Amino acid sequence: MDARPSTRPDRRTFAIISHPDAGKTTLTEKLLLFGGAIHAAGEVKARGAARRARSDWMKIEQQRGISVTSSVMTFERDGLTFNLLDTPGHEDFSEDTYRTLTAVDSAVMVIDAARGIEAQTRKLFEVCRLRSVPIITFINKVDREGREPFSLLDEIADQLALDVAPMNWPVGMGGMFEGLYDLEGQRLMRPAADGTAAFEGDVTAVSGLDDPRLAAAISADALARLTEETELAGAGYAAFDAEAYRHGDLTPVYFGSALKDFGVAELIDALARFAPSPRPQPADPAPVSPDDQAVTGFIFKVQANMNPMHRDRVAFMRLCSGRFRRGMKLTQVGTGKAISVHSPILFFARERETAEEAWPGDIIGIPNHGTLRVGDTLTDGAPRVITGLPNFAPELLRRVALKDPTKTKQLRKALDDLAEEGIIQVFYPEIGSQWVVGVVGQLQLEVLVSRLEVEYKVDARLEASPWDTARWIAGSEADLKSFAEFHRGGLARDRDDALVFMAKDAWEVNYVAGRYPAIRFSATRERA
Ligand code: GDP
Protein backbone atom coordinates (compact mmCIF):
# COMPACT_ATOMS: atom_id res chain seq x y z
CA MET A 1 0.00 0.00 0.00
CA ASP A 2 1.33 3.41 -0.80
CA ALA A 3 0.73 6.18 1.68
CA ARG A 4 0.65 9.17 -0.59
CA PRO A 5 -2.58 10.98 -0.09
CA SER A 6 -1.11 13.94 -1.92
CA THR A 7 -1.45 11.98 -5.16
CA ARG A 8 -5.19 11.84 -4.66
CA PRO A 9 -6.79 13.49 -7.68
CA ASP A 10 -9.37 16.13 -6.83
CA ARG A 11 -13.07 15.91 -7.64
CA ARG A 12 -16.15 18.11 -7.69
CA THR A 13 -19.14 15.91 -6.99
CA PHE A 14 -22.40 17.81 -7.34
CA ALA A 15 -26.06 17.69 -8.30
CA ILE A 16 -28.39 20.14 -9.97
CA ILE A 17 -31.56 21.02 -8.10
CA SER A 18 -34.43 22.72 -9.88
CA HIS A 19 -38.13 22.77 -10.60
CA PRO A 20 -39.16 20.97 -13.82
CA ASP A 21 -38.64 23.13 -16.92
CA ALA A 22 -36.18 25.50 -15.31
CA GLY A 23 -33.55 24.13 -17.69
CA LYS A 24 -31.73 21.37 -15.83
CA THR A 25 -31.52 19.10 -18.85
CA THR A 26 -30.27 21.89 -21.09
CA LEU A 27 -27.69 22.96 -18.55
CA THR A 28 -26.54 19.37 -18.00
CA GLU A 29 -26.08 19.01 -21.72
CA LYS A 30 -24.03 22.20 -21.87
CA LEU A 31 -21.89 21.31 -18.89
CA LEU A 32 -21.00 18.04 -20.57
CA LEU A 33 -20.31 19.82 -23.81
CA PHE A 34 -18.17 22.56 -22.29
CA GLY A 35 -16.46 20.03 -20.13
CA GLY A 36 -14.93 17.92 -22.88
CA ALA A 37 -18.11 16.30 -24.17
CA ILE A 38 -18.34 12.97 -22.57
CA HIS A 39 -21.91 12.32 -23.55
CA ALA A 40 -23.17 13.71 -26.83
CA ALA A 41 -25.50 16.55 -26.00
CA GLY A 42 -28.35 15.06 -28.00
CA GLU A 43 -28.48 12.00 -25.78
CA VAL A 44 -29.22 14.01 -22.70
CA LYS A 45 -31.84 16.00 -24.55
CA ALA A 46 -33.61 12.92 -25.83
CA ARG A 47 -33.76 11.54 -22.37
CA GLY A 48 -35.14 14.79 -21.03
CA ALA A 49 -37.87 14.91 -23.63
CA ALA A 50 -38.81 11.30 -23.04
CA ARG A 51 -38.90 11.84 -19.35
CA ARG A 52 -41.60 14.39 -19.59
CA ALA A 53 -44.08 11.96 -21.06
CA ARG A 54 -45.40 10.01 -18.16
CA SER A 55 -46.05 6.78 -20.03
CA ASP A 56 -42.58 6.79 -21.53
CA TRP A 57 -41.14 7.42 -18.17
CA MET A 58 -42.88 4.34 -16.79
CA LYS A 59 -41.37 2.29 -19.55
CA ILE A 60 -37.96 3.68 -18.87
CA GLU A 61 -38.33 2.94 -15.20
CA GLN A 62 -39.28 -0.64 -16.00
CA GLN A 63 -36.40 -1.15 -18.32
CA ARG A 64 -34.21 0.54 -15.78
CA GLY A 65 -30.74 0.09 -17.28
CA ILE A 66 -31.09 3.36 -19.16
CA SER A 67 -31.02 5.54 -16.15
CA VAL A 68 -28.21 3.53 -14.62
CA THR A 69 -25.76 5.00 -17.11
CA SER A 70 -27.13 8.50 -16.89
CA SER A 71 -27.38 8.61 -13.11
CA VAL A 72 -23.81 9.79 -12.89
CA MET A 73 -22.19 11.91 -15.55
CA THR A 74 -18.57 12.76 -15.54
CA PHE A 75 -16.75 15.53 -17.33
CA GLU A 76 -13.40 17.22 -17.17
CA ARG A 77 -12.23 20.74 -17.55
CA ASP A 78 -8.72 22.05 -17.11
CA GLY A 79 -7.64 18.71 -15.70
CA LEU A 80 -10.27 18.63 -12.95
CA THR A 81 -12.88 15.86 -12.88
CA PHE A 82 -16.51 16.70 -12.18
CA ASN A 83 -19.09 14.09 -11.19
CA LEU A 84 -22.63 15.27 -11.84
CA LEU A 85 -25.25 13.14 -10.12
CA ASP A 86 -28.64 13.17 -11.74
CA THR A 87 -31.72 13.80 -9.66
CA PRO A 88 -34.91 12.72 -11.44
CA GLY A 89 -36.60 15.87 -12.64
CA HIS A 90 -40.32 15.15 -12.78
CA GLU A 91 -42.82 16.66 -10.45
CA ASP A 92 -43.20 13.66 -8.22
CA PHE A 93 -39.94 12.49 -6.99
CA SER A 94 -38.97 9.75 -4.70
CA GLU A 95 -36.71 9.36 -1.79
CA ASP A 96 -34.18 8.48 -4.41
CA THR A 97 -33.89 12.14 -5.33
CA TYR A 98 -33.27 13.15 -1.78
CA ARG A 99 -30.76 10.41 -1.23
CA THR A 100 -28.73 11.43 -4.22
CA LEU A 101 -28.19 14.70 -2.42
CA THR A 102 -26.53 12.83 0.42
CA ALA A 103 -23.80 11.75 -1.99
CA VAL A 104 -22.75 15.18 -3.27
CA ASP A 105 -20.43 17.80 -1.88
CA SER A 106 -22.27 20.73 -3.44
CA ALA A 107 -25.25 21.63 -5.59
CA VAL A 108 -26.16 23.98 -8.39
CA MET A 109 -29.63 25.49 -8.04
CA VAL A 110 -31.19 26.38 -11.38
CA ILE A 111 -33.93 29.00 -11.34
CA ASP A 112 -36.05 30.18 -14.25
CA ALA A 113 -35.62 33.96 -14.52
CA ALA A 114 -39.31 34.39 -15.26
CA ARG A 115 -40.55 32.15 -12.46
CA GLY A 116 -38.15 32.53 -9.60
CA ILE A 117 -38.17 29.98 -6.80
CA GLU A 118 -40.73 27.23 -7.32
CA ALA A 119 -42.08 24.44 -5.14
CA GLN A 120 -39.58 21.78 -6.13
CA THR A 121 -36.65 24.12 -5.86
CA ARG A 122 -37.60 24.87 -2.31
CA LYS A 123 -38.08 21.22 -1.31
CA LEU A 124 -34.74 20.19 -2.71
CA PHE A 125 -33.11 23.22 -1.18
CA GLU A 126 -34.39 22.17 2.24
CA VAL A 127 -32.68 18.82 1.83
CA CYS A 128 -29.44 20.57 0.96
CA ARG A 129 -29.81 22.79 3.99
CA LEU A 130 -30.30 19.76 6.23
CA ARG A 131 -26.75 18.75 5.36
CA SER A 132 -25.31 22.26 4.83
CA VAL A 133 -24.61 21.47 1.19
CA PRO A 134 -23.16 24.62 -0.42
CA ILE A 135 -25.16 25.98 -3.32
CA ILE A 136 -24.24 27.95 -6.41
CA THR A 137 -27.28 29.58 -8.02
CA PHE A 138 -27.76 29.78 -11.78
CA ILE A 139 -30.58 32.08 -12.87
CA ASN A 140 -31.43 30.70 -16.29
CA LYS A 141 -33.09 32.04 -19.43
CA VAL A 142 -31.89 35.65 -19.29
CA ASP A 143 -32.23 35.63 -23.08
CA ARG A 144 -35.99 35.75 -22.50
CA GLU A 145 -38.17 38.26 -20.73
CA GLY A 146 -37.69 37.58 -17.08
CA ARG A 147 -38.15 39.25 -13.75
CA GLU A 148 -35.93 42.06 -12.54
CA PRO A 149 -32.60 40.80 -11.20
CA PHE A 150 -33.29 42.52 -7.86
CA SER A 151 -36.64 40.83 -7.46
CA LEU A 152 -35.05 37.43 -8.13
CA LEU A 153 -32.13 38.00 -5.79
CA ASP A 154 -34.40 39.27 -3.01
CA GLU A 155 -36.66 36.28 -3.41
CA ILE A 156 -33.75 33.87 -2.99
CA ALA A 157 -32.51 35.77 0.03
CA ASP A 158 -35.93 35.99 1.69
CA GLN A 159 -37.43 32.63 0.88
CA LEU A 160 -34.34 30.56 1.46
CA ALA A 161 -32.80 32.68 4.19
CA LEU A 162 -29.50 32.83 2.34
CA ASP A 163 -27.12 35.68 1.65
CA VAL A 164 -26.85 36.23 -2.08
CA ALA A 165 -23.73 37.42 -3.86
CA PRO A 166 -24.31 38.29 -7.54
CA MET A 167 -21.22 37.30 -9.52
CA ASN A 168 -22.31 38.68 -12.87
CA TRP A 169 -25.09 40.92 -14.08
CA PRO A 170 -27.31 40.70 -17.14
CA VAL A 171 -27.04 43.62 -19.52
CA GLY A 172 -30.76 43.73 -20.29
CA MET A 173 -32.94 40.66 -20.62
CA GLY A 174 -35.15 39.16 -23.29
CA GLY A 175 -35.25 41.27 -26.46
CA MET A 176 -32.97 43.82 -24.83
CA PHE A 177 -30.33 41.29 -23.84
CA GLU A 178 -26.90 42.62 -24.73
CA GLY A 179 -24.73 40.26 -22.77
CA LEU A 180 -23.44 39.52 -19.30
CA TYR A 181 -21.14 41.61 -17.23
CA ASP A 182 -18.71 39.69 -15.02
CA LEU A 183 -18.61 41.70 -11.80
CA GLU A 184 -15.49 40.06 -10.45
CA GLY A 185 -13.40 39.77 -13.58
CA GLN A 186 -14.75 42.99 -15.15
CA ARG A 187 -15.46 41.40 -18.48
CA LEU A 188 -18.32 41.80 -20.88
CA MET A 189 -19.62 38.75 -22.69
CA ARG A 190 -21.67 39.58 -25.74
CA PRO A 191 -23.81 37.36 -27.89
CA ALA A 192 -22.30 36.19 -31.17
CA ALA A 193 -24.17 36.78 -34.42
CA ASP A 194 -26.39 33.75 -33.78
CA GLY A 195 -27.37 35.10 -30.37
CA THR A 196 -25.34 32.56 -28.41
CA ALA A 197 -22.19 33.00 -26.43
CA ALA A 198 -20.66 30.70 -29.02
CA PHE A 199 -18.97 28.72 -26.30
CA GLU A 200 -16.51 31.15 -24.88
CA GLY A 201 -17.82 33.83 -27.10
CA ASP A 202 -17.10 37.44 -27.56
CA VAL A 203 -15.38 38.56 -24.41
CA THR A 204 -14.13 42.09 -23.77
CA ALA A 205 -11.98 42.70 -20.73
CA VAL A 206 -12.51 46.17 -19.34
CA SER A 207 -11.00 48.16 -16.51
CA GLY A 208 -14.40 49.04 -15.06
CA LEU A 209 -17.80 50.41 -15.92
CA ASP A 210 -16.29 53.67 -17.11
CA ASP A 211 -14.01 51.94 -19.63
CA PRO A 212 -14.73 53.36 -23.11
CA ARG A 213 -14.56 49.84 -24.53
CA LEU A 214 -17.74 49.08 -22.58
CA ALA A 215 -19.47 52.17 -23.91
CA ALA A 216 -18.48 51.14 -27.41
CA ALA A 217 -19.78 47.62 -26.95
CA ILE A 218 -23.28 48.18 -25.55
CA SER A 219 -25.99 50.78 -25.96
CA ALA A 220 -25.90 53.95 -23.89
CA ASP A 221 -29.17 53.01 -22.19
CA ALA A 222 -27.89 49.60 -21.28
CA LEU A 223 -24.67 51.05 -19.90
CA ALA A 224 -26.51 53.61 -17.80
CA ARG A 225 -28.75 50.93 -16.40
CA LEU A 226 -25.91 48.49 -15.80
CA THR A 227 -23.99 51.17 -13.93
CA GLU A 228 -26.92 52.05 -11.74
CA GLU A 229 -27.97 48.48 -11.05
CA THR A 230 -24.54 47.15 -10.25
CA GLU A 231 -23.92 50.06 -7.91
CA LEU A 232 -27.14 49.29 -6.07
CA ALA A 233 -26.30 45.60 -6.05
CA GLY A 234 -22.85 46.28 -4.66
CA ALA A 235 -24.37 48.23 -1.80
CA GLY A 236 -27.33 45.91 -1.19
CA TYR A 237 -25.89 42.42 -1.37
CA ALA A 238 -23.09 40.56 0.31
CA ALA A 239 -19.72 40.31 -1.35
CA PHE A 240 -18.76 36.75 -2.19
CA ASP A 241 -17.26 34.97 0.80
CA ALA A 242 -15.94 31.47 0.18
CA GLU A 243 -16.27 30.43 3.81
CA ALA A 244 -19.90 31.54 4.07
CA TYR A 245 -20.64 29.71 0.81
CA ARG A 246 -19.04 26.49 2.04
CA HIS A 247 -21.09 26.65 5.22
CA GLY A 248 -24.25 26.96 3.18
CA ASP A 249 -24.96 30.50 4.42
CA LEU A 250 -24.32 32.35 1.17
CA THR A 251 -24.94 31.54 -2.46
CA PRO A 252 -23.00 33.07 -5.34
CA VAL A 253 -25.48 33.86 -8.11
CA TYR A 254 -24.74 33.59 -11.82
CA PHE A 255 -27.16 34.87 -14.42
CA GLY A 256 -27.06 32.99 -17.68
CA SER A 257 -28.74 31.12 -20.44
CA ALA A 258 -28.13 27.41 -20.71
CA LEU A 259 -29.72 27.39 -24.14
CA LYS A 260 -27.51 30.17 -25.48
CA ASP A 261 -24.38 29.08 -23.59
CA PHE A 262 -24.23 32.18 -21.41
CA GLY A 263 -22.74 31.77 -17.99
CA VAL A 264 -22.01 28.07 -18.48
CA ALA A 265 -18.23 28.36 -18.59
CA GLU A 266 -18.38 30.72 -15.60
CA LEU A 267 -20.47 28.20 -13.71
CA ILE A 268 -17.95 25.42 -14.29
CA ASP A 269 -15.14 27.74 -13.25
CA ALA A 270 -17.06 28.63 -10.10
CA LEU A 271 -17.46 24.95 -9.27
CA ALA A 272 -13.75 24.44 -9.81
CA ARG A 273 -12.70 27.45 -7.77
CA PHE A 274 -15.20 27.55 -4.93
CA ALA A 275 -17.08 24.26 -4.59
CA PRO A 276 -15.63 21.94 -1.98
CA SER A 277 -13.44 18.97 -2.74
CA PRO A 278 -14.70 15.70 -1.26
CA ARG A 279 -15.42 16.47 2.36
CA PRO A 280 -14.90 14.34 5.44
CA GLN A 281 -17.96 12.19 6.02
CA PRO A 282 -19.58 11.91 9.43
CA ALA A 283 -19.19 8.36 10.70
CA ASP A 284 -19.12 6.24 13.82
CA PRO A 285 -16.82 6.01 15.72
CA ALA A 286 -14.84 8.70 13.83
CA PRO A 287 -15.36 10.74 10.66
CA VAL A 288 -13.96 9.36 7.42
CA SER A 289 -11.43 11.69 5.81
CA PRO A 290 -10.86 11.53 2.06
CA ASP A 291 -7.17 11.14 2.84
CA ASP A 292 -7.66 8.02 4.95
CA GLN A 293 -5.93 5.06 3.41
CA ALA A 294 -8.72 2.58 3.96
CA VAL A 295 -11.30 2.44 1.19
CA THR A 296 -14.66 3.47 2.61
CA GLY A 297 -17.91 4.31 0.91
CA PHE A 298 -21.64 4.23 1.37
CA ILE A 299 -24.55 3.11 -0.74
CA PHE A 300 -26.93 5.95 -1.53
CA LYS A 301 -29.04 4.34 -4.18
CA VAL A 302 -29.96 0.87 -5.36
CA GLN A 303 -31.42 0.27 -8.76
CA ALA A 304 -32.86 -2.90 -10.24
CA ASN A 305 -31.14 -3.84 -13.43
CA MET A 306 -32.31 -3.99 -17.01
CA ASN A 307 -33.92 -7.39 -16.95
CA PRO A 308 -36.86 -7.61 -14.55
CA MET A 309 -36.70 -11.42 -14.62
CA HIS A 310 -33.36 -11.37 -12.87
CA ARG A 311 -33.11 -9.84 -9.46
CA ASP A 312 -29.87 -8.11 -10.35
CA ARG A 313 -29.27 -4.76 -8.85
CA VAL A 314 -26.74 -2.03 -9.09
CA ALA A 315 -25.82 -0.37 -5.83
CA PHE A 316 -24.38 3.12 -6.18
CA MET A 317 -21.53 3.72 -3.80
CA ARG A 318 -20.08 7.11 -3.06
CA LEU A 319 -16.42 6.66 -2.33
CA CYS A 320 -15.37 8.63 0.75
CA SER A 321 -11.79 7.58 1.33
CA GLY A 322 -8.93 5.56 -0.06
CA ARG A 323 -8.05 4.44 -3.53
CA PHE A 324 -10.48 1.91 -4.88
CA ARG A 325 -9.15 -0.74 -7.21
CA ARG A 326 -11.06 -3.22 -9.27
CA GLY A 327 -11.31 -6.66 -7.69
CA MET A 328 -11.01 -5.27 -4.18
CA LYS A 329 -12.70 -7.04 -1.34
CA LEU A 330 -14.86 -4.76 0.76
CA THR A 331 -16.73 -5.64 3.92
CA GLN A 332 -20.35 -4.74 4.40
CA VAL A 333 -20.26 -3.21 7.84
CA GLY A 334 -23.04 -4.60 9.97
CA THR A 335 -23.29 -8.04 8.39
CA GLY A 336 -19.54 -8.50 8.09
CA LYS A 337 -20.08 -9.97 4.64
CA ALA A 338 -17.14 -9.72 2.26
CA ILE A 339 -17.99 -8.46 -1.19
CA SER A 340 -15.55 -8.81 -4.07
CA VAL A 341 -16.00 -5.94 -6.44
CA HIS A 342 -14.87 -7.52 -9.69
CA SER A 343 -17.00 -5.67 -12.17
CA PRO A 344 -17.64 -2.23 -10.81
CA ILE A 345 -19.25 0.34 -13.07
CA LEU A 346 -17.42 3.61 -13.24
CA PHE A 347 -19.26 6.37 -14.93
CA PHE A 348 -16.48 7.92 -16.93
CA ALA A 349 -16.74 7.96 -20.67
CA ARG A 350 -19.32 7.35 -23.31
CA GLU A 351 -20.66 4.10 -22.06
CA ARG A 352 -20.38 2.05 -18.99
CA GLU A 353 -16.77 1.26 -18.61
CA THR A 354 -15.17 -1.19 -16.32
CA ALA A 355 -13.27 0.77 -13.79
CA GLU A 356 -9.73 0.07 -12.72
CA GLU A 357 -9.64 2.61 -9.95
CA ALA A 358 -11.65 5.34 -8.33
CA TRP A 359 -11.02 8.07 -5.80
CA PRO A 360 -12.95 9.86 -3.07
CA GLY A 361 -15.82 11.77 -4.64
CA ASP A 362 -16.28 9.17 -7.38
CA ILE A 363 -19.33 6.98 -7.69
CA ILE A 364 -19.01 3.27 -8.30
CA GLY A 365 -21.84 1.03 -9.46
CA ILE A 366 -21.65 -2.39 -7.79
CA PRO A 367 -23.73 -5.15 -9.38
CA ASN A 368 -25.15 -7.50 -6.72
CA HIS A 369 -28.13 -9.70 -6.02
CA GLY A 370 -29.79 -7.68 -3.32
CA THR A 371 -27.15 -7.92 -0.62
CA LEU A 372 -26.37 -4.24 -0.65
CA ARG A 373 -28.84 -1.79 0.78
CA VAL A 374 -29.18 1.94 0.82
CA GLY A 375 -27.33 3.27 3.82
CA ASP A 376 -24.76 0.45 3.93
CA THR A 377 -21.14 1.28 4.59
CA LEU A 378 -18.48 -0.73 2.75
CA THR A 379 -14.85 -0.68 3.77
CA ASP A 380 -11.59 -2.58 3.62
CA GLY A 381 -10.47 -1.02 6.88
CA ALA A 382 -11.64 -1.05 10.46
CA PRO A 383 -15.43 -1.22 10.67
CA ARG A 384 -16.97 2.23 10.56
CA VAL A 385 -20.51 3.30 9.89
CA ILE A 386 -21.15 6.35 7.79
CA THR A 387 -23.97 8.32 9.34
CA GLY A 388 -26.26 11.10 8.32
CA LEU A 389 -28.23 9.42 5.54
CA PRO A 390 -31.78 10.33 6.36
CA ASN A 391 -35.08 8.66 5.58
CA PHE A 392 -37.64 11.26 4.57
CA ALA A 393 -41.15 11.73 5.86
CA PRO A 394 -43.68 10.53 3.30
CA GLU A 395 -46.48 12.81 2.23
CA LEU A 396 -48.95 10.23 0.93
CA LEU A 397 -49.85 7.04 2.76
CA ARG A 398 -51.82 4.24 1.12
CA ARG A 399 -52.97 0.83 2.27
CA VAL A 400 -52.01 -2.04 0.05
CA ALA A 401 -54.88 -4.42 -0.76
CA LEU A 402 -54.01 -7.75 -2.30
CA LYS A 403 -56.41 -9.13 -4.88
CA ASP A 404 -55.14 -12.68 -4.33
CA PRO A 405 -54.58 -13.35 -0.60
CA THR A 406 -52.27 -16.32 -1.29
CA LYS A 407 -49.66 -13.82 -2.50
CA THR A 408 -48.96 -12.28 0.90
CA LYS A 409 -45.41 -13.58 1.00
CA GLN A 410 -44.58 -12.24 -2.45
CA LEU A 411 -46.08 -8.90 -1.51
CA ARG A 412 -44.00 -8.60 1.62
CA LYS A 413 -40.86 -9.45 -0.31
CA ALA A 414 -41.75 -6.96 -3.04
CA LEU A 415 -42.49 -4.15 -0.59
CA ASP A 416 -39.28 -4.76 1.30
CA ASP A 417 -37.30 -4.83 -1.96
CA LEU A 418 -38.85 -1.65 -3.27
CA ALA A 419 -38.41 0.08 0.05
CA GLU A 420 -34.78 -0.96 -0.11
CA GLU A 421 -34.48 0.70 -3.50
CA GLY A 422 -35.97 3.85 -2.05
CA ILE A 423 -39.00 3.69 -4.36
CA ILE A 424 -41.37 3.66 -1.39
CA GLN A 425 -41.34 3.43 2.35
CA VAL A 426 -43.22 0.61 3.95
CA PHE A 427 -44.96 0.62 7.32
CA TYR A 428 -46.32 -2.42 9.10
CA PRO A 429 -49.08 -1.19 11.46
CA GLU A 430 -49.21 -2.52 15.00
CA ILE A 431 -52.94 -3.08 14.60
CA GLY A 432 -54.54 -4.64 11.57
CA SER A 433 -53.08 -6.69 8.78
CA GLN A 434 -53.00 -4.16 5.96
CA TRP A 435 -49.61 -2.84 5.15
CA VAL A 436 -49.09 0.79 4.36
CA VAL A 437 -46.81 2.39 1.80
CA GLY A 438 -45.57 5.93 2.05
CA VAL A 439 -44.32 8.09 -0.80
CA VAL A 440 -43.55 11.73 -1.43
CA GLY A 441 -45.32 11.91 -4.80
CA GLN A 442 -48.21 10.39 -6.73
CA LEU A 443 -46.00 9.10 -9.51
CA GLN A 444 -44.23 6.80 -7.12
CA LEU A 445 -47.55 5.07 -6.41
CA GLU A 446 -48.01 4.39 -10.11
CA VAL A 447 -44.50 3.06 -10.40
CA LEU A 448 -45.17 0.85 -7.38
CA VAL A 449 -48.34 -0.74 -8.77
CA SER A 450 -46.73 -1.26 -12.14
CA ARG A 451 -43.59 -2.86 -10.74
CA LEU A 452 -45.55 -5.10 -8.37
CA GLU A 453 -47.41 -6.43 -11.35
CA VAL A 454 -44.60 -6.68 -13.87
CA GLU A 455 -41.73 -7.80 -11.70
CA TYR A 456 -43.38 -9.59 -8.82
CA LYS A 457 -46.60 -10.81 -10.47
CA VAL A 458 -48.52 -9.40 -7.55
CA ASP A 459 -51.88 -7.85 -8.32
CA ALA A 460 -52.41 -5.18 -5.71
CA ARG A 461 -54.60 -2.18 -5.27
CA LEU A 462 -53.82 0.94 -3.28
CA GLU A 463 -56.53 2.19 -0.99
CA ALA A 464 -57.02 5.35 0.96
CA SER A 465 -55.64 5.28 4.46
CA PRO A 466 -56.59 7.48 7.41
CA TRP A 467 -53.08 8.93 7.39
CA ASP A 468 -51.03 11.11 5.12
CA THR A 469 -47.84 11.62 6.98
CA ALA A 470 -45.56 9.80 9.37
CA ARG A 471 -42.89 10.56 11.93
CA TRP A 472 -40.23 8.37 13.43
CA ILE A 473 -40.59 8.46 17.19
CA ALA A 474 -38.12 7.81 19.96
CA GLY A 475 -38.14 8.10 23.71
CA SER A 476 -37.81 6.12 26.90
CA GLU A 477 -39.59 2.79 27.11
CA ALA A 478 -42.05 4.14 29.68
CA ASP A 479 -42.89 7.20 27.60
CA LEU A 480 -43.39 5.15 24.48
CA LYS A 481 -45.60 2.75 26.39
CA SER A 482 -47.88 5.46 27.65
CA PHE A 483 -47.95 6.99 24.19
CA ALA A 484 -48.93 3.64 22.68
CA GLU A 485 -51.85 3.27 25.06
CA PHE A 486 -53.60 6.19 23.42
CA HIS A 487 -52.19 6.10 19.92
CA ARG A 488 -51.72 2.45 19.05
CA GLY A 489 -53.95 2.86 16.00
CA GLY A 490 -51.37 5.14 14.42
CA LEU A 491 -48.29 3.12 15.33
CA ALA A 492 -46.32 1.07 12.85
CA ARG A 493 -42.84 -0.34 12.28
CA ASP A 494 -40.74 0.46 9.26
CA ARG A 495 -38.80 -2.30 7.52
CA ASP A 496 -35.95 -1.87 9.96
CA ASP A 497 -38.35 -2.27 12.86
CA ALA A 498 -38.12 1.39 13.88
CA LEU A 499 -41.22 2.84 15.47
CA VAL A 500 -43.32 5.20 13.37
CA PHE A 501 -46.33 7.33 14.20
CA MET A 502 -48.73 7.80 11.30
CA ALA A 503 -50.89 10.89 11.39
CA LYS A 504 -53.57 12.56 9.34
CA ASP A 505 -51.52 15.65 8.69
CA ALA A 506 -48.77 17.87 10.00
CA TRP A 507 -51.27 19.63 12.24
CA GLU A 508 -52.05 16.39 14.04
CA VAL A 509 -48.36 15.62 14.37
CA ASN A 510 -47.77 18.99 16.00
CA TYR A 511 -50.75 18.62 18.26
CA VAL A 512 -49.75 15.16 19.45
CA ALA A 513 -46.09 16.11 19.73
CA GLY A 514 -47.09 19.03 21.92
CA ARG A 515 -48.78 16.66 24.33
CA TYR A 516 -45.81 14.30 24.55
CA PRO A 517 -42.82 16.58 25.00
CA ALA A 518 -40.67 13.66 26.18
CA ILE A 519 -41.00 11.89 22.86
CA ARG A 520 -38.95 12.92 19.83
CA PHE A 521 -40.86 13.09 16.55
CA SER A 522 -38.64 13.26 13.51
CA ALA A 523 -39.58 13.78 9.91
CA THR A 524 -36.43 11.99 8.90
CA ARG A 525 -34.86 8.94 10.34
CA GLU A 526 -31.13 8.83 10.30
CA ARG A 527 -29.56 5.48 9.84
CA ALA A 528 -27.30 4.84 12.72
P1 GDP B 1 -35.75 20.68 -17.19
O1 GDP B 1 -37.15 20.20 -17.10
O2 GDP B 1 -35.37 21.51 -16.01
O3 GDP B 1 -34.74 19.62 -17.50
O4 GDP B 1 -35.74 21.75 -18.39
P2 GDP B 1 -35.21 21.67 -19.89
O5 GDP B 1 -33.73 21.78 -19.94
O6 GDP B 1 -35.82 20.51 -20.59
O7 GDP B 1 -35.79 23.06 -20.43
C1 GDP B 1 -37.17 23.36 -20.42
C2 GDP B 1 -37.47 24.29 -21.58
O8 GDP B 1 -36.80 25.52 -21.41
C3 GDP B 1 -37.00 23.74 -22.91
O9 GDP B 1 -37.93 24.08 -23.90
C4 GDP B 1 -35.67 24.46 -23.13
O10 GDP B 1 -35.35 24.59 -24.49
C5 GDP B 1 -35.96 25.79 -22.51
N1 GDP B 1 -34.73 26.44 -22.02
C6 GDP B 1 -33.77 25.92 -21.25
N2 GDP B 1 -32.79 26.83 -21.03
C7 GDP B 1 -33.16 27.95 -21.67
C8 GDP B 1 -32.57 29.23 -21.82
O11 GDP B 1 -31.50 29.55 -21.32
N3 GDP B 1 -33.27 30.13 -22.57
C9 GDP B 1 -34.45 29.85 -23.15
N4 GDP B 1 -35.04 30.79 -23.87
N5 GDP B 1 -35.03 28.66 -23.04
C10 GDP B 1 -34.40 27.71 -22.30
TrEMBL record:
It is found in: Cytoplasm. It comes from the Bacteria. GO terms for biological process: regulation of translational termination. GO terms for molecular function: GTP binding; GTPase activity; guanosine tetraphosphate binding; translation release factor activity, codon nonspecific; translation release factor activity, codon specific. GO terms for cellular component: cytosol. GTP binds at residues 18-25, 86-90, 140-143. Keywords: Cytoplasm, GTP-binding, Nucleotide-binding, Protein biosynthesis. Residues 9-279 form the Tr-type G domain. SUPFAM superfamilies: EF-G C-terminal domain-like, P-loop containing nucleoside triphosphate hydrolases, Translation proteins. Belongs to the TRAFAC class translation factor GTPase superfamily. Classic translation factor GTPase family. PrfC subfamily. PANTHER family: PEPTIDE CHAIN RELEASE FACTOR RF3. NCBIfam families: prfC, PRK00741.1, small_GTP. Increases the formation of ribosomal termination complexes and stimulates activities of RF-1 and RF-2. It binds guanine nucleotides and has strong preference for UGA stop codons. It may interact directly with the ribosome. The stimulation of RF-1 and RF-2 is significantly reduced by GTP and GDP, but not by GMP. This is Peptide chain release factor 3.
